[in-house]
Design a protein that fits this description.
By secondary structure, the chain is α+β, with helices and mostly antiparallel strands. It has a single domain (30-173), classed as Yope Regulator, Chain: A. It is built from 5 helices and 6 strands; from the N terminus they run ααββββαββαα. A hairpin with a 2-residue loop joins strand 1 and strand 2 (52-57). The longest helix is centred in the first third of the chain and has 20 residues, at 2-21. The termini are far apart.
C-alpha cells in the first residue's frame, strides 16, 4: 500500500500537462511556409530544401526535417558519438529525459547522441516551435554539465534563470510573426 500511495501523486503530476495540451488554439495550422517564416526570424541565414531546414540557434547547428503527409516534424542537433559513452553518461541523459529535458529529448540514432524536439506538424504553435528549438539547443549546450532544456526544472537551483534566457531570447525574436 505504501508504494501505491507514493505513485498516485506522481500519476496526477504526469497527467496534468496532457489536459493542458488539449486547449483550443487560435493559430492556423503549422505549414512549411509558416515554419520557414518563423525560422527566418530566428536565423535570417536559414537554409531550406524541400521539407527540411538548416539553421543555427545560439551557435548550435539545427536540422529540421518534416513530413507533411505524416503530419510530423523533428528538429535534430548532433551532440557526440555514442562510442565511449559510459554507463553513467547514458544513465544521466535518461534521467534528464525524465526531469529536465522537458519537450526536447536526448536520443541515440546511427551511432550518434542527439538533442531532438519532435512534434506533430499541423498543431504545432509558433511559441511551441521556438521553445522546443531553444530547449533542444540547451540540451546540446548543457550536455556533460546540467543536462537541461532550460525552461524549468523539477526542484530548485540557481541555474534555472540562466537556462531560460535562450528560450526567452528566441521567443522575443518570434513576437513580430
Amino acid at each position: 500500500m505504501k508504494t501505491l500511495a507514493l505513485a498516485l501523486p506522481l500519476i496526477a503530476v504526469l497527467a496534468w500537462p496532457v489536459s493542458a495540451q488539449n486547449t483550443p488554439t487560435s493559430e492556423p495550422p503549422m505549414t512549411l511556409p509558416r515554419m520557414a517564416e518563423i525560422l527566418t526570424a530566428l536565423d535570417p541565414d536559414v537554409e531550406t530544401g524541400g521539407t527540411a531546414f538548416r539553421l543555427t540557434v545560439s551557435d548550435v547547428p539545427v536540422v529540421i526535417v518534416t513530413d507533411p503527409l505524416a503530419d510530423r516534424m523533428r528538429a535534430l542537433i548532433p551532440i557526440r558519438s555514442v562510442d565511449g559513452m559510459t554507463a553513467e553518461e547514458v544513465m544521466r541523459v535518461m534521467q534528464a529525459n525524465f526531469d529536465t529535458a522537458l519537450d526536447a529529448r536526448y536520443a541515440v540514432a546511427q551511432g550518434q547522441l542527439w538533442a531532438v524536439f519532435i512534434h506533430p506538424l499541423s498543431p504545432l504553435e509558433k511559441d511551441q516551435l521556438i521553445s522546443g528549438l531553444g530547449q533542444a539547443a540547451n540540451l546540446a549546450l548543457t550536455y556533460g554539465t546540467l543536462f537541461t532544456g532550460g525552461a524549468m526544472q523539477f526542484g530548485g537551483g540557481d541555474s534555472t534563470q540562466l537556462h531560460r534566457e535562450l528560450i526567452d531570447k528566441l521567443l522575443k525574436k518570434g513576437e513580430e510573426i
